[in-house]
UniProtKB/TrEMBL annotation, chain A:
GO terms for cellular component: ATP-binding cassette (ABC) transporter complex. This is Polar amino acid transport system permease protein. Residues 23-220 form the ABC transmembrane type-1 domain. Keywords: Cell membrane, Membrane, Transmembrane, Transmembrane helix, Transport. PANTHER family: ABC TRANSPORTER PERMEASE, MEMBRANE COMPONENT OF AMINO ACID ABC TRANSPORTER. GO terms for molecular function: transmembrane transporter activity. InterPro entries: AA_ABC_transptr_permease_3TM, ArtM/GltK/GlnP/TcyL/YhdX-like, MetI-like, MetI-like_sf. It is a multi-pass membrane protein. Belongs to the binding-protein-dependent transport system permease family. HisMQ subfamily. It is found in: Cell inner membrane; Cell membrane. The chain crosses the membrane at residues 27-47, 68-85, 97-115, 201-223. It holds the Pfam family BPD_transp_1. Its main location: membrane. The lineage of its organism: Bacteria, Pseudomonadati, Pseudomonadota, Alphaproteobacteria, Hyphomicrobiales.
TrEMBL record, chain B:
This is Polar amino acid transport system permease protein. One of its GO terms (molecular function) is transmembrane transporter activity. The keyword Nucleotide-binding does not apply. The keyword Transmembrane applies. SUPFAM superfamilies: MetI-like. Keywords: Cell membrane, Membrane, Transmembrane, Transmembrane helix, Transport. The chain crosses the membrane at residues 25-49, 70-92, 98-118, 139-157, 196-218. InterPro entries: AA_ABC_transptr_permease_3TM, ArtM/GltK/GlnP/TcyL/YhdX-like, MetI-like, MetI-like_sf. One of its GO terms (biological process) is amino acid transport. Pfam families: BPD_transp_1. It is a multi-pass membrane protein.
Amino acid sequence: MGYQLDFSKILQGEYLDLILQGIQTTMVLFVLSWFFGLLLAIVLTVVRAVEFRPTQLLVAAFVEYHRNVPVLIQLFVWYFGFAVVLPDAVNEYLNDIGAEIGYAIVALALNKAAYMSEDFRSGMRSIHPAQMEAARSIGLTYLGAMRWVILPQAWRLALPALLGQTLILFKGTSLAAGIGVAELSYQARYIEEQSFRIFEAYGIATAIYMLISFVIMWLTSVLSDRFRLRVK
Amino acid sequence: MLEIIRDYGLMLLIGEYPHGKLGGLALTLIISIVSLAVTFPCAVLIALARTAQSRPLKAVASGFVHCVRAIPLLMLIFWAYFALPMVIGFPIDATYTLIIAIVIYQTAYLGEIIAAGIKGLPNGQTEAAKALGLSYIPTTFRVILPQAIFNVIPGIVNQLTTIIKESSLGSIIAVSELSYVMLQVNSNEVTKPLQIFGILAATYFILCFALSQATNWLERRIANRRTGRVIVEAVA
């Protein structure tokens, strides 16, 4: 085979800039969708905990939609579908400031919110109802019992699953390439098309993904261990 | 909305077949089921290596699982689609490259599920098999795996849902599965993207929601059967 590996062609000049931009976009996607996803997940969990049937059903429908439709299709729905609902002037403005990445963050954040709220919920559910009764009977209010008894245990129980979602989200940012966001895998594809250095372009992108994923995995095991619930 | 279903409904189900290649929902289902069928034996091997006595074997399996979990599926698809034909020296159909990428990816995940099933069995099973004079192969294939796999059937069905969702990435490398067909419909009918992608999302939703309900049902049934057995054993 007459193919010589030569990473120096990729790791300089224009291509290096593209890779660095790709990493930056990937991290922006990852951090912002994680943050907004977590925030919305907390809101959803609280709404679902309130005993009011209609809102509970709405949250359940939101969760089921995001769990049973591929993330790529969720991105399509926002990017292709939602855009036509908006007036032209808004679309033009959005396209000027980079609509793709905005829609990608919205879609990924909503998706993660659905999964993370389920993790919170199962964390809450695994605490025996008797704990709430015991807390109330020693004179704590409902909110006090939540604050001092239920939540400190629930978030620890939910933590490993939440960190697992974090890794899935990080890898999921690559799907934004499907709607044209110039993140890392998109740039790898572009560099490969321009330079025909298939193995170098994908090799570098894969190595960067693996490196960051391993950091997330390592943090997952350290944090899960640090905050493990030690009472049983 | 109804016009789109009337005009493109058949295309959504089977693509351009019989005038062209099979596509649409039918191809999505074929890709998913074939991927799961090929993944299954690979995943069993990984699970056996993960739970083996030999440390090098364990380390290799765990290295494989961690590496695959660290890479986005899209990168694996790019590797299979662009780099694999260069390595083997001849072009392969995009559908096969998609299946190859999904199989590698899912082997890591399904392997962990089956390994959990093996670890979940009480040690007494292996010890009893040994006491009866069974060697490693019959112990594994006639005592451990049948029980371990039975217990993780819900997990396996759940992975089928995941694979169906993952196969949507085929649209990026022009595999004419469900999402790709609807992207094409969208470029024909430029004015109705919300309806078109709404129908697409609804199709996946119906399929995956039905499967996840089936998973829940299986989970309950298997849990009942296992606890039922314990009661019978206790009485006997």
